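Let us practice reading a record.
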Amino acid sequence: MAMASMSSGLLSWVERAPMPTWWRGDRHLRMATDCTGLGAPEIAVNSIAAAAGQTVEHAWACDVYKPAQEWLRAVGLRCPILSDMNMRTWTRAGQMISTCGLGHERTFDRTSALDVYVSGCMCTPFTLNGRRKGWADEHAKTFWSSLKTIVALKPRSFLLENVIAA
């Protein structure tokens, strides 16, 4: 019952919320995610867009874990599924070069025109249940890779998320 009321509350909010002026008409919202996991950001944004009568185009989804990559393919996410974001390279021309989970190299640049970039950086370097090595932890590099992606591709908006102290 609580889930149904949450869902109807979200739809009610979406119906009342003004859409950004750049996301009206037949223009797709262009989104990319890193540390995607099971695709929660994609599911949420697709649901909001559908309720608002809009569509979403996914530029890429990225997760280092093979089971997550396989899941994203299995649920039909129609975009490149990238692997380790820490293995990316960036050019002076503002290009990001990344490898797909299938081994193919992909290049993205500012012309990718991202509206939303979402990254859920690895939490284990900082959490109580993690390693607690902080910035010295190898997994903390995902934060810096996220920042480099933002600087190189200049999305209209971005969301960096992490847990406080799990």
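A brief commentary: The CA atoms of residues 65 and 83 lie 8 Å apart.
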